[in-house]
Amino acid sequence: MRILLVTYTKNLVKRLANLSSNLEYCGIVVDEVEPAKKALEKIGLSRDLLYPMSNLSNCLERIHYEYILCADMGWENKLLQSVRACGVSKNKTVGINFFRNEFLTERALRYFNEHCTEFDMFATGISYAETGLNVNCFKRKLFNFARSSQDLYYNFLTAKFAISCGGEHSKIRYALIGLAPYEFHYDLSQSMNLQFLMLDYLVAFNDLHNFFVPIDTYRKFFREEYLLNKLSLNDFDVNDPFLVKKKYHAYSVSSKIAAENKKNVSKTPNKNVAKEAPVRADGHGGKKDFPETCLNNIKILDDYLTLCEENSIRPIMFLAPMPSTYMQNYSVNQIEELRYIVEQACQEHLSARFIDGWELDFINDSDFYDKGHMNLQGATKFSTYINDFIEALETKSIE
Fold it and tell me: Does the pTM of the predicted model rise above 0.85?
């Protein structure tokens, strides 16, 4: 398979070591050619493969390739965007990222499988549910599978896995299903700027959903030994399985930073939240409108709720709170569509419940560390509310 690799010189040897030795490189475009020459010499590749980033457009025109691999270093996807800006077909460009905590989903699934009988509930969702739930606030033990950019399809696969664990010894009674405002118009596998996340789900589920690269072809990009790599379960933090919360000052529970947070948190809105939230809301509510995806996701939600009912698990869907400026600028039609879909789902599945976090007046802008994600203070308030909601359901069921 002829590959044109577009990447950075930093950590080039490690990137190439993770890619399959069977790939035929027709060119390697880098930001710094001279250091890259030494890197290629170490692994026996010809320095003639190298091209400077300044010649990217020319390389794309004259080099024959089957796929372009854009091996970036972060969320920005600058390399993928640069290639696409040159007019290359989206079906030829593949974004990958080796250094963004890959395989953490597989690690979380493995941990849960080994400890499944300890948990009474699990949660799925996107980043708003990831940071918005504080597992320490629940009377019943919760495992939070919610992860940044995780869509409803992979949340459903996660739920199927979690429910299959433990067999007759499973104690799972509740499933907390976090929904993003744009949930039903979102398909991770078709989101061009999030392609690098597909590697994580290949390893976790061997499933790429609607990704444009066939799964057998995608696997061939990587060394099999790399795909079989297992992250250690040592120091696994149930309140932060995907190593996100500890990165943010506003979520840290260390004594030093917690004291700093207490000093900085006020009743007035965070200036950055107030400034950035409208932009984020406009992007989410205005660009994610895909009718076919919506219909597919409605079916996935129905299957998810049915799965819960068949296993005597009560599903509780929730929309995480957002900053006031986000909610004010979000598409009214899209949020009302979500509420209608959820209402219909609750009528079809009588055990299901819905918590609308956008209607909670005790959440304010000081409960967020950025333009859409709750800090520890906000997560504690919201999680306490959900816990009380669940315990009220328990009391009613006993009566």
Answer: yes
